[in-house]
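Section 5.1 Outputs to date
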Amino acid sequence: MKIINTSFRTNQAEIMDNFELGGEELEKVLKDLENINKWLGGNKVTLSGIKKIQRENPQEQEWNIVDVGCGNGAMLREIAQWGKKNNIELKLTGVDANIHAISIAKRLSENYPNIEFKVMDVFSESYRKQNFDIVLCTLTLHHFTDPQIINLLKLFHRQAKYGVLINDLHRSKIAYRLFQVFCRVFIRNEIARKDGLTSILRGFKKSDLERFSAKIPASQAEIKWKWAFRYQWIIQK
């Protein structure tokens, strides 16, 4: 059995980091990731954070929310459904650097008029000019290096009127082994399997998130562990 070291974040790349990945192969991987989030309750981590920020700011009539690294747009569609059910006005934007992922997201979201998708590099000047009420980063932050993360968090914090909401993985041996078992039963796609395990090793411990939080000036951070091996991290002014 492979020895797993979770003391530090791995710098191993994920297959999904290749923005040339597209077609049926990418669509299958994104669908598997969507199912994993649905089955293991990952989307609830993001949605509960949005509800918290929304409750604390009842004066806001329309919420402008961006999902950074939106993939096939599944998270935004769930948010749109919640907004419609609760009569909450939402303007939703999904950004991703993979043009193929954005193409898939647009097709799957044709019946959601309040969702817009853009091919965009978060390090670009065009993205830096954007402003939102809430910036979401769902299973995206772990794709970046520590210095990149600090720079992005400072940017997100500046862009967000009310808060930045991170939903990402707890780096844990138990999480790694449980995901291996989960994949044997439920996940047949090899890329989803390999990248899922690498993602865990690129994930975070609470001390990492606290260290990052200390680098963001004039901010308040709330970090909570959630099932299944997720951290909900809310950064507010």
